[in-house]
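Thread: Newbie trying to understand structure tokens

Hi all, I'm a second-year student working on a class project, and my supervisor (Dr. K.) asked me to get a predicted structure for one chain before our next meeting. I've only ever worked with sequences, so writing a 3D structure as a token string is new to me. If someone could post the tokens and maybe explain what I'm looking at, I'd be very grateful. Here's the chain:
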Amino acid sequence: MAGDTLTSSEYIKHHLTNLTYGQHSDGSWGLAHTAEEAKEMGFWAFHVDTLAFSILLGALFLIIFAKAAKYATSGVPGGLQNFVEWVIEFIDDNVKSSFTGKNNFIGSLGLTVFVWILLMNTMDLVPVDFLPELAKLLGVNNLKVVPTTDPNATMGMALSVFGLTLFYSFKIKKPGGFFAELAFHPFPKYLFPVNLLLEGVSLIAKPISLGLRLFGNMYAGEMIFILIALLPWYIQWSLSLPWAIFHILIVVLQAFIFMVLTIVYMDMAYTVDEH
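---
Reply by user tm_fold:
Sure, no problem. This is what the structure looks like when written as tokens:
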């Protein structure tokens, strides 16, 4: 529920401000206490909440799958083993249908991307005031619990995928082949400046669209939860539950889209044009 001491705009700003660590205007380093202080810290500030929840959820992913692997049996599997096997088969089917090269790393990458993003997205289903209010009891003023509502997190993952795409493009196609793909397609070779411009823009747009798509959808969903929390309690219950149920689809779908596009981009890195 929204706090009684905050106006609507202050409440929204409070929930959209990360727990930020950086350099203050006086040169000292520490946590920002207001949104204005966080803004003044600039680009090199750290979003502590995004980093913490991302690492914790990544560790949770490893613990769950490691436990399933440790107690896996060829006999009658338990519920956890069934679930993990279903997830792995789901990822494996998508890799086989979208990736035409040979690289066992792609399956692990797809699994990590899907499960990790799914766990981070699922934090959006936690009541908006629950964890921030607990954090206030510990003296923490600002706390964003959904890492994927932070563009630093989504763009960081997107740029990591982009880096892998470039690495394998150079490895498979060699620098000359990679340049030829950019300069001599789709128009004839004498129009290579036009080709280079078009393909260069398309190449750069991939990580930007990949990161911003995930951020935009999750940020919008979080914003709606925040706006619902500003309403009277008897209206909150009638709106938050239907939106939460619908938002489950968005949570899963955005993780799936990011995973599929990651596999597709890696496949493009392995595809060598005949021309």
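A couple of things are worth pointing out once you decode it. The chain is about 70% helix and 5% strand. The radius of gyration is 22 Å. Feel free to ask follow-ups in this thread.
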